[in-house]
Amino acid sequence: MTSPDSYQPILESGRWFAQLPPAFAQALVTMAHIRHLQTGEVLFLRGNAPCGLYAVVRGAISISGTGGKADEVRAALLIRLEPPHWFGEISVFDHSARTHDAHATEPTTLVHIPHEKLQAWLQAHPEHWHALALLLTDKLRAAFVAMEDLALLPAPQRLARRLVMMAEGYGQWTAQGRSRRVIDISQEQLSLMLAITRQTTNQILKDLQARQLVRVQRGEVEILDLPALRAFCH
Fold it and tell me: Residue 49: phi, psi to the nearest 5?
């Protein structure tokens, strides 16, 4: 599929897009074009100029960063974005450089609204800035939850909570109670997300598997009992 219209059902399965004023939703689809990325391909890097707003409609995008001294560089995987997640809104507001790196973790298709077109449309229709701000505030709430988890929860509960959040699409789906059983994520990716070692991640997953909450396979985690896994988070 090469037309943005073809992906509208996927976009409408997401809570933010589904709740947009019809004029704004239609404008986004009209302004959009489709981008395809291969596994490992860069979408943008920290420091790059603003390039617009994106929605994942197939595959997944990893948002990550690096830091530390040259001989002690550490990587952090902040989040893995899957359909129907929107991202890139920070630079839409402040026109500043990208804050993190974005790579395709598998063959990925994106709906892309170019920065200049979006800015021009919003300047002509300023009443819709509020709708875009709701996307930003939703991410801010999620960031505060992640910060609180890092400060207060032991590693096993943090890992379980992240699995629950991923299984529930980070609350982005419109369907109430929707969840998925299999999460495509490696132990290495989980360890980078949670700032814990690969060995610790492996030990926690083995314990969750022994409790019959998950089944761990290469490159994926299958959720066997989502309510029990959610209860384990506390």
Answer: -70, 155
Q: What token pair was written down for 83?
A: 């359909």
| Amino acid identity, position 221 | V
Encoded tokens for 200? 């610790």
- Euclidean distance between the first and the last CA atom of the chain, given in angstroms as a whole number: 43
Residue 83 contacts residue 57 (beta carbons within 8 Å): yes
Quote the tokens at residue 55: 């929605």
Residue 134 to residue 38: CA distance in whole angstroms: 30
Q: Phi first, then psi: give them for residue 170, nearest 5 degrees.
A: 55, 30
CB atoms within 10 A of CB 104: 22
10 Å CB burial of residue 105 (0-12, 13-18, 19+) is buried
Beta partners for residue 91, in sequence order: none
Bridge partners, residue 6, by sequence: none
pTM recorded for the entire structure: 0.90
DSSP conformation class of 4: G
State pLDDT tens for residues 83-122: 999 999 999 999 999 999 999 999 999 999 999 999 999 9
